[in-house]
Design goal:
The chain is an alpha+beta fold. Helix content is about 15%, strand content about 40%. Strands 3, 4, 5, 6, 7, 8, 10 and 11 form an eight-stranded antiparallel sheet that branches. The protein has a five-stranded mixed sheet with strand order 9-12-1-2-13.
Length: about 180
């Protein structure tokens, strides 16, 4: 009887250890993602799995001249975000009128392009438009209006992070929410 009791205790302890390790693993960040966070609470509102060299764009309507603006970004090997191009239609308030050193300025089909940009960020902040901006995440054929997962007017921090299984469950995976 004592041997049977010892065996049950060992099985119970082993099961507890397995459950504890499984729970612990759920909180360890392992998946690289482009995250949209609420900076004050550090909560992930939405994310998209991403890898080095992947590109994405943020498309929006400029609030003053109501024309399209497209910002193009690339993920670096160091998990930073590099802006490499800016496309816009008006020189009005807030838009550049010339290229910085090393960049090129082009006009094509009535649009202005700043190319060869090499502006690198660990993160950047964005306020999701409340009225007209309709900030949209673009990657390949995917166009995802950020207002689907983020309340308009909210300030978000965009950055590359490794996220855990629990964080994936809490945030909206843009690829799953098409």
């Amino acid at each position: 009887m004592n041997l049977l009791f010892e065996k049950k205790i060992k099985i119970f302890v082993l099961l507890l250890l397995i459950i504890f390790l499984a729970l612990l693993l759920m909180f360890i960040p392992y998946k690289k993602a482009l995250t949209f966070l609420q900076p004050e609470e550090n909560d992930i509102l939405c994310y998209v799995p991403i890898a080095a060299e992947d590109t994405f764009k943020i498309w929006y309507k400029h609030s003053i001249h109501l024309s399209d603006v497209i910002e193009s970004y690339k993920v670096t090997e160091q998990d930073t975000i590099r802006q490499y191009e800016l496309e816009y239609q008006d020189f009005a308030i807030g838009m550049p009128s010339e290229a910085a050193e090393g960049e090129s300025f082009e006009i094509k089909d009535g649009k202005y392009f700043l190319k060869n940009m090499n502006r690198e960020f660990e993160h950047f902040d964005l306020r999701v438009g409340q009225v007209r901006a309709n900030h949209t995440f673009v990657q390949g054929n995917l166009h995802y209006p950020l207002s689907k997962a983020i309340e308009p007017g909210t300030r978000v921090r965009i950055q590359i992070r490794k996220i855990s299984f629990i964080q994936q469950m809490e945030g909206v995976n843009i690829l799953d929410d098409k």
